[in-house]
């Protein structure tokens, strides 16, 4: 409970310097394992190893969202997948790659814990109605092992100037373990895939009552059918690059929708091409304080504050009483005995757990 009280989190640790380019592995990203069928009919179960960057995001051991592997150290997902209560405790989030099954393993299945969370500073974590800038990055405490045969691989990140490449009618594919029907809450064990053409932006804005911003894109069939749904959130919408490219790009991140698969109600995705300027400095370890969101936990705040203040005042009263009695005894002893206040826990909650 105490770690949830982390209201002001100080950037206490200077991380090791690493520099990285926008594309972590430009020649290898987005490639698939040989022998996977590229034919997708409708919404259907995916073949094993078909989407080597698809990640299952777990919170306290439970599947909550999808995500994508963009670097051995980094996972990208939607900001709305991040419960603000856990911003100070990134290790409650785990990421699993290397299987189409949520429960069974292959010989390349791997799970890693997060050590740092970056949600977009303009995404309002406390407002459920807010959908703009729905993007988050997680740094792992250990890197994923990518395989040379692309059974586990990164997906390519599109640059800002590639926006036109992924315009209206380009066919993209969305994958994940989301519910197969709107309103259902049980996730299938097997990953599903569905092809969805990218929508015209203006048409999409009309279909969704003018709620679409430049940071979003829509994809779906005008007649309905294939769509992402609850549990697919944060997962990838990918499309092949221009020409004869055999490399897939992360065009969108599953964000929101009105129902799932309804006619003239496409799914809405975070438009990844808009976030190059946000992702790059984080990759380059140029963490600024405004992209580092403090931990806030509205549901627990009032109760926690009251409990905290109560225990503090009891502690204070007790220690004052004790102090007077023990001053003489303590005077000649330990010099750091009085330093252990409650503050220590709060500061530590946000620190990097890497290498510990
Ligand atoms: C993953 O890589 C690490 C070193 O980076 C190695 O120690 C470990 O054995 C590898 N795990 C697997 C399953 O290959
Ligand atoms: C969508 O429509 C609203 C209302 O007409 C408008 O304010 C907004 O700029 C539009 N969004 C885009 C991306 O054009
Ligand atoms: C780090 O970010 C700040 C603020 O965005 C910027 O002014 C500065 O030039 C960046 N430094 C490097 C080395 O990129």
UniProtKB/TrEMBL annotation:
Pfam families: Trypsin. InterPro entries: Peptidase_S1_PA, Peptidase_S1_PA_chymotrypsin, Peptidase_S1A, Trypsin_dom, TRYPSIN_HIS, TRYPSIN_SER. Residues 1-19 form the signal peptide. The chain crosses the membrane at residues 300-326. The keyword Acyltransferase does not apply. Residues 336-356 are annotated as: Disordered. Residues 40-284 form the Peptidase S1 domain. Keywords: Disulfide bond, Hydrolase, Membrane, Protease, Serine protease, Signal, Transmembrane, Transmembrane helix. GO terms for cellular component: plasma membrane. It comes from the Eukaryota. This is Peptidase S1 domain-containing protein. It comes from Strongylocentrotus purpuratus (Purple sea urchin).
